[in-house]
Amino acid sequence: MLPPTVTYKKCGSAALCKNGSLKCQLKYQCTACHYQAVFTHAVARKAAQHAQLGKLLVERASQRAIVRLTGVARPTIVKLAKKTPITPHPLPKPSRPQELELDEM
Q1: Do residues 58 and 86 make contact, with C-beta atoms less than 8 angstroms apart?
Q2: pTM
Q3: Which of 26, 27, 49, 91 is the most exposed place for a label (fewest CB within 10 A)?
Q4: Separation CA 56–CA 81 (nearest Å)
Q5: Contact, 31 vs 16, CB < 8 A?
Q6: Buried b (16+ CB within 10 A) or exposed e, 71-88
């Protein structure tokens, strides 16, 4: 059984039990309404999603492209863009110029 803090949203039951796995993620079944699915915590899912959005913003992808790629609403992308400053990749330091010796003619 899962800890009692995890509940299923639709029926409100905390009676969840393990029911196999799908792509290396555990599946759970609600014993009250017999619904089964892969339950993931929203915090972990949102953290991964915000990291992906940050990378796309740094790559200067358009907001419309980000919406199509991730499925996140545009206002959410705008809020995240305002929160995190976009720092471009640092330019490589120029190498020291080679010294040329010229002979007098």
Answers
A1: yes
A2: 0.47
A3: 91
A4: 10
A5: yes
A6: ebeeeebeebeeeeeeee
